[in-house]
């Protein structure tokens, strides 16, 4: 057996609980490990429902709004690490990346995440069930059909009505990012300017109200993205723009290289591989990482939500 | 308005030999703009074939490439020697545990 990746369409909390609890119980009955990554309040509802089984530690629970707050973080840091820890079994995962409360700009990265699951786990014996609240997220349904070969609703499974090759889905969502209303700083830099980029971002972050730890995280992420921008495809110049809005602090890097690998930033490389960790680190540390890549260059936007 | 970071030069990185052991005290921030200074110093130390010490008490920042460099140096030293990092900055410990899980430690015991 290989990957099974199914969407679960639900309209009520009862439908959610029925579909997900059955999936978890069937997996546990077969002796398989279960990861449940959904947002509150459904996480606690499901935990209550499964408390008898969960008592034996066979189920791991993750609040998707925290562990998966950056959609690009879910694949490398939640799902893959879980699957790798259970590589001798058939991991069963309930993952709800797109839930009511997601910001509009998170949707594109979420859909790309769903598409890339089909690539990363293509050869892995894994079963994923992704609940979708179709009563409140009707506009997302076409994306769910594109990214899941099978859709379940009211206890019945059927083939998707629009399953699309993952590369095509990722490319469809690779769109120019909307311009901000105001930019606080625009700076051109090359490799010698990396410390300056880091310091400017920190100064502006402080003014925007980002705390010290998160500013440190952002500096690390920004350094990696900026380093990629001034060293790929060869050493050159890049542009940094920073701005803040009431709910966010943003650093954006524009460089000349194109990202050719759709899995960039979503795979943890082996210990002997020298490269390929920069975007991965940004995905882990930032609240949102948006990219638009083309033959003329790549724009990477790092966002931290403000308290 | 676009400014240029001409006034913000690459941070000076100071790499000073330690007394009594093979290794260096490092001061500053380490990234792609100046990592070659550290890489060059370590190359010479690795050639001696024993333990190599790095005192990073005055290092304020390291990027992922620097951690990759240190992991590689530690690998090259084994089995005849070890890389012993004293007072690792936060990023080093964080990145090692996150990106190189299961890799043999390069952090010296805190004295």
Can you tell me about this structure?
The complex is a heterodimer of chains A (307) and B (111). Chain A has 307 residues and is an alpha/beta fold. Chain A is built from eleven helices and twelve strands. In chain A, strands 3-2-4-5-1-6-7 form a seven-stranded mixed β-sheet, with helices on both faces. Chain A has a five-stranded antiparallel β-sheet with strand order 8-9-10-12-11, with helices on one face. Chain B contains three helices and five strands, in the order βββαβαβα. A four-stranded mixed β-sheet of chain B has the order 2-3-4-5. Chain B is globular and about 25 Å long.
In short:
Chain A is an alpha/beta fold and 307 residues long. Chain A contains eleven helices and twelve strands. In chain B, α1 packs parallel to α2.
SSE arrangement:
The complex is a heterodimer of chains A (307) and B (111).
Chain A (H helix, E strand, L loop, with lengths): L3 E7 L2 H17 L4 E5 L3 H8 L1 H4 L4 E5 H4 L3 H15 L6 E4 L11 H14 L6 E7 L7 H7 L2 E4 L2 E4 L6 H7 L12 E5 L4 H15 L3 H20 L6 E8 L2 E8 L22 H8 L2 E7 L2 E9 L2
Parallel strand pairs in A: 1-5, 1-6, 2-3, 2-4, 4-5
Antiparallel strand pairs in A: 6-7, 8-9, 9-10, 10-12, 11-12
Helix pairs in contact in A: 1-2, 5-6, 6-7, 6-8, 9-10, 10-11
Chain B lengths: L1 E3 L9 E4 L5 E8 L4 H13 L4 E11 L1 H14 L5 E4 L3 H10 L12
Parallel strand pairs in B: 3-4, 4-5
Antiparallel strand pairs in B: 2-3
Helix pairs in contact in B: 1-2
Sequence stretches where pLDDT stays below 50 over 5 or more residues of chain B: 6-10
The H-and-E topology of chain B, N to C, reads as EEEHEHEH
Name the overall outline of chain A. elongated
Could you tell me how far the N terminus lies from the C terminus of chain A, measured between alpha carbons in angstroms?
A: 45 Å
Helical proportion of chain A?
25-40%
Placed side by side, the strands forming the largest sheet of chain A appear as: 3-2-4-5-1-6-7
Q: State mean pLDDT of chain B (0 to 100 scale).
A: 87
Largest interface: A-B, 33 and 29 residues
Treating each run of at least 4 consecutive H or I residues as one helix, how many helices of chain A?
11
Tell me the quaternary state: heterodimer
The share of residues in helices of chain B is: 25-40%
The tally of strands of chain A reads 12
Uncertain runs of chain A: none
The rounded distance between the terminal residues' Cα atoms of chain B is: 50 Å
Global shape of chain B: globular
How much is the radius of gyration of chain A in Å?
A: 20 Å
- Count every beta strand of chain B, where a strand is a DSSP E run of 2 or more residues: 5
Largest sheet geometry of chain A: 7 strands, mixed
Averaged pLDDT of chain A: 95
Structural class based on helices, strands and sheet pairing of chain A = alpha/beta
Count of helical stretches of chain B: 3
